[in-house]
Automatic annotation (TrEMBL):
Protein name: ethanolamine-phosphate cytidylyltransferase
Domain of life from the UniProt record: Eukaryota
EC number: 2.7.7.14
Pathway recorded for this protein: Lipid metabolism; Phospholipid metabolism; phosphatidylethanolamine biosynthesis; phosphatidylethanolamine from ethanolamine: step 2/3
PANTHER family in UniProt: ETHANOLAMINE-PHOSPHATE CYTIDYLYLTRANSFERASE
Similarity annotation: Belongs to the cytidylyltransferase family.
GO molecular function: ethanolamine-phosphate cytidylyltransferase activity
Enzyme class, first EC level, given as a word: transferase
InterPro entries: CCT, Cyt_trans-like, Ect1/PCYT2, Rossmann-like_a/b/a_fold
Species whose genome carries this gene: Angiostrongylus costaricensis
Length: 299
C-alpha cells in the first residue's frame, strides 16, 4: 500500500517535536504520520533543548512525554530527542524516514532542523492542521476576558507575548481570541476510528469540559477506563461550560475539545454536547453501567 504522499510505506516512521500544550493539531499530525508506516516512533525534546531554541515550555518534559505516549497513533516515545533531526538518529531507532508538517522548524541559529534528512531523502511531509497552534492557544489564555471568543482590535501586544512564550514552530495567528478551527465530519471520523461497544461490555461514562487537555485529565480518564470495558466521554457545550466556570471559559471550542479527547488511548467514544444532568433515559440510551465524577482536590 502507498503512503498518503504516493510513496512507499515504511516499517518504522519517525516524528519529533516539542509537543507543548498538547492539542488536537499535534494529534492530527501524528495520525497522518502513522499512515506512512506500520509503527510510529515519536521523539520528544527535553526542557533544556526547547529553552535553548525556542524559550521555556509551559508543560514539563515528563508531562509532555506522558501526553504524547498516550495518543492513540503513537507506538513508542523517545525521550530527550535531539532538537536537530539527523540520519544517525533515524538509524539508531531503526526508522526508515521522518515525517513532519508542511512548515519549517528552525534552530536558535536559524537553520532548518530537518536539513540533513532532507538531503538524505529520508524526509516525508504531511499537512499541518489549520486553525490551531500553541501560540493561538497561549494567546487565548492570556486574554481570558469575558468575551475571549469574540475578535477585537488592539491585540498585537497579546499576540507578541504569546509568541515569546510559545514553543510551536508554526506560531502565527492574527485572531488569538477566536477559535479559527472549523470542524468537519471527516475530521471527527478520522479521530473516532475504533470499535463499537459489544453487548457484553461494561460501559463507563464520564463528562466534563476537558478544556486545555492536560495530564490531570488523562489520569482521570485512564482510571475511569479501568472500571469497565468501554469508556464514553461526554463533552459539555461551550454555553454550559461558560455557565458553571464563568464567562472566561472555555478556552477551546466544543469541537476542539472533542478532538482533543478522542485522540487519547483510554477513550472509545465521545458524546458531543453532552447534557449537564444525566437522566435515566440517557443511561439507558448508552447502556451505561458506571457513571464517574471527578472531585476537585483543593489541597
Amino acid at each position: 500500500m502507498e503512503a498518503p504522499d504516493g510513496g512507499p510505506k515504511g516499517d518504522r516512521v519517525w516524528c519529533d517535536g516539542c509537543y507543548d500544550v498538547v492539542h488536537f493539531g499535534h494529534a492530527n499530525q501524528l495520525r497522518q504520520a502513522k499512515q506512512f508506516g506500520k509503527k510510529l516512533i515519536v521523539g520528544v525534546h527535553n526542557d533544556e533543548e526547547i529553552s535553548l531554541h525556542k524559550g521555556p515550555p509551559l508543560f514539563t518534559e515528563q508531562e509532555r512525554y506522558r501526553m504524547v505516549e498516550s495518543i492513540k497513533w503513537v507506538d513508542e516515545v523517545v525521550e530527550d530527542a535531539p532538537y536537530v533531526t539527523t540520519v544517525e538518529t533515524l538509524n539508531r531507532y531503526d526508522c526508515d524516514f521522518c515525517v513532519h508538517g508542511d512548515d519549517i522548524t528552525l534552530t536558535v541559529d536559524g537553520k532548518d532542523t530537518y536539513e540533513e534528512v532532507k538531503k538524505a531523502k529520508r524526509y516525508r511531509m504531511c499537512k499541518r492542521t489549520n486553525g490551531v497552534s500553541t501560540t493561538d492557544i497561549v494567546a487565548r489564555m492570556l486574554f481570558l476576558t469575558k468575551n475571549h471568543h469574540v475578535p477585537e482590535e488592539n491585540m498585537d501586544e497579546h499576540l507578541e507575548r504569546a509568541r515569546t512564550m510559545s514553543t510551536d514552530s508554526v506560531a502565527e495567528s492574527p485572531w488569538t481570541r477566536v477559535s479559527r478551527f472549523v470542524a468537519t465530519t471527516k475530521t471527527i471520523v478520522e479521530f473516532a476510528e475504533g470499535r463499537a461497544p459489544r453487548p457484553t461490555d461494561k460501559i463507563v461514562y464520564v463528562c466534563g469540559a476537558f478544556d486545555l487537555f492536560h495530564v490531570g485529565h488523562l489520569s482521570f480518564l485512564e482510571e475511569a477506563a479501568k472500571l469497565g470495558d468501554y469508556l464514553i466521554v461526554g463533552i459539555l457545550t461551550d454555553q454550559v461550560v461558560n455557565e458553571y466556570k464563568g464567562k472566561n471559559y472555555p478556552i477551546m471550542s466544543l469541537h476542539e475539545r472533542v478532538l482533543s479527547v478522542l485522540a487519547f488511548k483510554p477513550v472509545n467514544e465521545v458524546v458531543i454536547g453532552a447534557p449537564y444532568n444525566i437522566t435515566d433515559e440517557f443511561i439507558d440510551r448508552f447502556n451505561i453501567s458506571v457513571c464517574l465524577f471527578a472531585i476537585k482536590n483543593e489541597g
